[in-house]
């Protein structure tokens, strides 16, 4: 009987430790955006560890712009890991959350097992979307990077990216309607609004 009690006690202690560990992971502070003296955003060192949100190929803002023979670029969206954990727990974006959008040309070369499809070519450029109420009335800022850049330039306030995200983003100024990783976590009414919002020019 003592052996059974010890086994049960050990299991409870292990479960409590795992729960505490999970809680620590969920509530871990976000990796904060870092800036240089000129106000440029420094490229985060761990981009290869960010969480995948979704990808698109040849996405266009106007109807009839897609050409199947030349589909344009792959756009890959990621989110900083602790910002992702916060979103999963709270169903909202924490102040300071960073989302990454990377752009890759579509490689059409027939080689190996690819005979008639498209694969990602090299990275051409990327941008980081910083969600931060301290960034002004819009509460968001966009920084653009060349493929090999270590510092990102701030797009001017009132730029088209901010306007488009504010007016057409499904949830909290993001295009979460296109991100299968978090799409099930946003309110159905937000998805309904996004579904009715099209033909943006």
Largest sheet: 7 strands, antiparallel
**What is the strand content?**
25-35%
Which structural class do you get from the secondary structure elements?
Answer: alpha+beta
Radius of gyration using CA atoms only: 21 Å
Low-confidence stretches: 1-26
Give, in spatial order, the strands making up the sheet with the most strands.
1-7-6-5-4-3-2
Number of E strands: 7
What is the first-to-last residue Cα distance?
Answer: 73 Å
What string, H for helix and E for strand, traces the elements in order?
A: HEEEHEEEEHH
Which percent range fits the helix content? Answer: 25-40%
Mean pLDDT reading: 80
Task: Characterize the overall form.
Answer: globular
User: How many alpha or pi helices?
Assistant: 4
Task: Please explain how this structure is put together.
There is one protein chain. The chain has 201 residues and is of the alpha+beta class. The chain is 26% helix and 25% strand. The chain contains 4 helices and 7 strands; from the N terminus they run αβββαββββαα. A 7-stranded antiparallel β-sheet has the order 1-7-6-5-4-3-2. A hairpin with an 8-residue loop joins strand 5 and strand 6. The longest helix is centred in the N-terminal third of the chain and has 25 residues. It is globular.
What distinguishing features does this structure have?
globular; 7 strands; disordered N terminus; alpha+beta; 201 residues
